[in-house]
Write a sequence for this structure.
């Protein structure tokens, strides 16, 4: 909004207007997006939490077969904290991003769409006091539909790169300089798979206080840098990345995620006063997936978000092996609960997983130069 206002005033006066000239710079707007989203989340925090606690009564249902300590220590904690995230991200993006950019709207559509779906899931769990929520197949169908629509918008309306229109439907590979696999219209399914997969992977990870929040912030910061690089023709040429015109604006949304995470962590740090719930986990994971699609770094997301991948794989292995043999591979899935069963304290699990997320982010960033 402010960027469009600046463009309008600059066009009217035919020269740059004093301090407003700072709005030209993506870095300045990114820093302001971090600050804005953080302020929004912190400002609404205490009142929102009190209101959620009053409305929800017993709070988020805790798995009866889960860690026994959680049943006593976390009982009554409200959920739907993801709405705080969504408020911060939306306000900061609308204020500081270029609202004529299709990538901004596509990623924001995915974030809010999955957030709305997560809200309905949280609402069903709270009102029925069950951990089941919405039908899994219904949720998957809606998620896939939102993902396909967002990817289609990016393919049809995003500006073409000098490499040609084929880049928009192609998968790029890390390390290899110019390797592309053009999937044509099958890319819609692939892109939707990335978005839906990332969404549910973050949702599996959200099981301990602060466990998902910080890795999401780390991944968002990493992809903010990637978006800035691939959206700048000089940097992309130097690093031999595929230049994606307009993708740099996605860095504003990444910054908003980081800022919202900082604000939310104020209330979500152990012991959490509120859980992000599906309204947060589904939306944040989907946002990361959509950002990876926009920047043509879908495979790198699997590296940067490797922690989320491991959490998801642990659940898949556990379910498949139990159905086949009646035995469990892990003491409990997702894998963070396995380590709790081994005797690790919650804070130990969370901090060590944060360390792993940082290491994976550095590995992901290294692929930008290893070409």
């Amino acid at each position: 909004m402010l960027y469009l206002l600046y463009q309008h005033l600059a066009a009217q006066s035919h020269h740059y207007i004093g301090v407003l000239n700072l709005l030209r710079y993506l870095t300045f707007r990114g820093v302001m997006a971090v600050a804005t989203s953080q302020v929004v989340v912190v400002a609404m925090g205490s009142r929102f939490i009190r209101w959620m606690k009053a409305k929800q009564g017993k709070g988020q249902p805790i798995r009866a077969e889960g860690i026994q300590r959680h049943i006593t220590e976390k009982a009554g904690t409200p959920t739907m904290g993801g709405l705080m995230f969504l408020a911060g991200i939306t306000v900061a993006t609308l204020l500081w991003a270029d609202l004529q950019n299709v990538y901004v709207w596509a990623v924001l559509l995915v974030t809010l769409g999955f957030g709305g779906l997560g809200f309905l899931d949280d609402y069903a769990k709270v009102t029925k006091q069950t951990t089941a929520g919405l039908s899994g197949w219904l949720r998957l169908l809606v998620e896939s539909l939102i993902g396909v629509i967002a990817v289609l918008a990016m393919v049809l309306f995003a500006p073409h790169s000098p490499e040609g229109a084929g880049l928009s439907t192609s998968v790029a590979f890390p390390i290899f300089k110019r390797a592309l696999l053009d999937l044509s219209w099958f890319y819609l399914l692939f892109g939707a798979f990335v978005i839906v997969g990332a969404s549910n992977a973050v949702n599996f990870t959200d099981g301990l206080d602060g466990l998902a929040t910080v890795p999401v912030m780390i991944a968002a910061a990493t992809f903010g840098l990637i978006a800035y690089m691939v959206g700048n023709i000089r940097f992309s040429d130097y690093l031999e990345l595929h230049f994606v015109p307009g993708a740099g604006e996605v860095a504003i949304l990444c910054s908003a995620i980081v800022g919202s995470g900082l604000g939310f962590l104020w209330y979500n740090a152990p012991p959490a006063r509120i859980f992000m719930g599906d309204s947060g986990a589904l939306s944040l994971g989907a946002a990361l997936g959509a950002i990876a699609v926009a920047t043509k770094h879908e495979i790198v997301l699997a590296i940067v978000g490797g922690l989320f991948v491991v959490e998801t794989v642990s659940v898949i292995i556990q379910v498949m092996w139990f159905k086949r043999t009646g035995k469990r591979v892990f003491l409990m899935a997702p894998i963070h609960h396995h380590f709790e069963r081994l005797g690790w304290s919650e804070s130990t699990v969370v901090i060590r997983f944060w360390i792993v997320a940082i290491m994976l982010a550095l590995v992901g960033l290294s692929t930008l130069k290893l070409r």
Observations:
- DSSP finds 15 helices and two strands in the chain.
- The chain has a mean pLDDT of 89.
